[in-house]
Amino acid sequence: HTPLTTRCFSTLISALNTFNSSNPQGPAGTGKTESVKAFSCKLARPCIVFNCDSAIDRDDLGRILIGIVLSGSVGCFDEVNRLSPAVLSAVSTDIENIQKAI
């Protein structure tokens, strides 16, 4: 582990303990996705990595969210910046509703 990985794990644990989500940020190639995958291994949960792009709509992401929740997996949405603002807004609302229901 690196100090950055340790910091990322700490943030992810805090989010998990408060039933929130977390969004690791940083330049490309700094290990954000790999850190989330390693974190899910430490939790003994599968990690579902989904690469977002501009063709993805709310229904697509909704189905993925349902699968993540029902399977008890850790979700990792890579390249979230590629989603349209409308889709990102709608999915943010969906995630918030899931968090409130837990």
TrEMBL record:
Q: Which GO molecular function terms does the record list?
A: ATP binding; dynein intermediate chain binding; dynein light intermediate chain binding; minus-end-directed microtubule motor activity
The record's Gene3D superfamilies line, in alphabetical order, gives: P-loop containing nucleotide triphosphate hydrolases
Q: Name one Pfam family in it.
A: AAA_6
Write out the GO cellular component annotations.
9+2 motile cilium; axoneme; cytoplasmic dynein complex
- The Dynein heavy chain hydrolytic ATP-binding dynein motor region domain extends over 1-102
What InterPro entries has UniProt attached to this entry? AAA_6, DHC, P-loop_NTPase
Query: Can you supply a Gene Ontology BP term from the record?
Result: intraciliary retrograde transport
Could you name the domain of life of the organism this protein comes from? Eukaryota
Name listed for the protein in its UniProt record: Dynein heavy chain
- Organism, scientific name: Trepomonas sp. PC1
Species lineage = Eukaryota, Metamonada, Diplomonadida, Hexamitidae, Hexamitinae
